[in-house]
Amino acid sequence: MSFNVIGFYIFLALGIVLYYIIPKKVRWVWLLVLSYYYYYTYTIKTVWLLMATTLIIYGGGLLLDRINVTSEAALKENKGTWDREQKKAFKAKTKRRKKGVMVTILVLIFGILAVIKYTDFVLENVNAVLLKTGQGQVPLMKFILPLGISFYTFQSASYIIDLYNDKFRAEKNPFKVALFVSFFPQLLQGPIGRFDRLAPQLFEGHDYDLRNIEFGLQRIFWGLFKKMILADRAAVYVNEVFTNYANYGGFFNILGVLMYSIQLYADFSGGIDVVIGVAQMFGITMDENFKQPYFSTSIGDFWRRWHITLGTWMKDYIFYPFSLSKGMNKLGKWGKKHLGRFGKGLPICLADLLVFLVVGIWHGAAWKYIIYGMYNGVIMAFSSLMAPVYEKQKEALHIKSDSKGWHVFQIVRTFILVNISWYFDMGTSLSAALSMMKSSILDFSFSQFNQEAIYAVGLEKKDFIILLIGCVVVFIVSVLKEKGIEIRKSLAEKPLVVRWAVYYLLVMSIYMLGYTGVTQGFIYANF
């Protein structure tokens, strides 16, 4: 059941009613039942992979917890007999044991992800080499990709790493661990939750609160507005141009990329709005995943605003551990000694490249995604190295960092850089993405701009008008949020007539203006 079909909301309504009827102490059990039933509505064939990941981190968590308990007991028992060096050696041995368990668990769960998601990618590249050497081909495995496997794997990994870092105690109930991994609203496309923030909310059971229902519905309808009015409509143009880019000129390719920037943001952020709204109706507050990303002033700022939970996951579990490691510390000292301030920043640059290599691989099993990730990583690393030079240039040109003109320039510059990356993200292949980029520059002409040609791509004049009006509405809302205005709270304080007028207008706009062509699934559902 996708979030944009009526069956999901019948399922949701029944789920909420029963949630608040049954005893509070077993409400988490009902959430687990709902989650696995939701997974079943997509496919039952891959549920064993979800269960396998759950059992692996459950067992690994108990093992880490047992090591902690036995270690604490041994230290307490030998408090008066061990000297400082003996305690230090014992703690180091305990840490090595814990690290061994953590690494083993991570290898197992990421191994499942790698085999299912990337085996055919590896085999395709092997076959490409074999073809050039005249050898036979290796048959592809063609695994069924489980729903949300990347999301629940990363979330499961955070549980194990946080246990290793002693952020909390392991959960003893395997069914509660199963709920943390499979909570149905976020299973489709995140956000990637952390156990210490999400799990207590899942397990405690919440009292009925009309405000949660109201705020949840607000968020759901706003998400559907973006998805059904903007994303599904823009997708028609995007699919046509990116699939048949050779038939169109540079102007249409650029317009296709701009349409994709609308589609991707409206689709992904709209889906997250629905997720957060659904969870809030159960009294559960989930992490925000977007913060006006197209107002970013740099690529780094963009990734702090776009898919926030993935960015924080990468920062906490890859960037900091790698950049602050002993090896990188030595490299930084060597670089500072031999290369000055540029050398000092080498660990951060390498960490950026590693993070975005992982981001690219996470996005999909294709070279275009790896290049997409490295494109962002190179810009981040280069910007980090050149920061002192940029500051000197600004001083020489008398540019004030806090001026509105400079701020707007940074936003426009970042938006252009982000849209260049969308060629790789949406292109049918790496070669197709590069060909589209080439066409956008060398085959661009304003003579291509005519209404008849534009409307022949798949959308009518009214569709472009609806897209324009919808984008203006989203832009206004984004500006208000950027200024720190809490729109939902402000709306809740308005008179009942005003609130219901806004709700009615929002619902009717979805009903009347939602795209009625081919139903588009959520882009990140297959991650």
Topology:
Blueprint: H1 6-21, H2 27-42, H3 47-77, H4 84-132, H5 149-164, H6 174-182, H7 184-187, H8 195-204, H9 210-243, H10 250-281, H11 299-305, H12 308-323, H13 326-339, H14 341-344, H15 346-363, H16 367-396, H17 404-426, H18 430-442, H19 451-455, H20 461-482, H21 487-492, H22 496-513
Helix pairs in contact: 1-2, 2-6, 3-4, 3-5, 3-6, 4-5, 6-8, 9-10, 9-20, 9-22, 10-17, 10-18, 12-15, 15-16, 16-17, 17-18
Number of strands: 0
Number of helices: 22
Percent in helix: over 70%
SSE succession: HHHHHHHHHHHHHHHHHHHHHH
Write structural notes for this entry:
By secondary structure, the protein is an all-alpha fold. It folds into 3 domains: 200 residues, no CATH class; 156 residues, no CATH class; 129 residues, no CATH class. Helices cover 75% and strands 0% of the residues. It has 22 helices and no strands. Helix 10 crosses helix 17, helix 15 packs antiparallel against helix 16 and helix 17 crosses helix 18. The chain is globular and about 85 Å long. The chain starts with 5 loop residues before the first helix and ends in a 14-residue tail after the last helix.
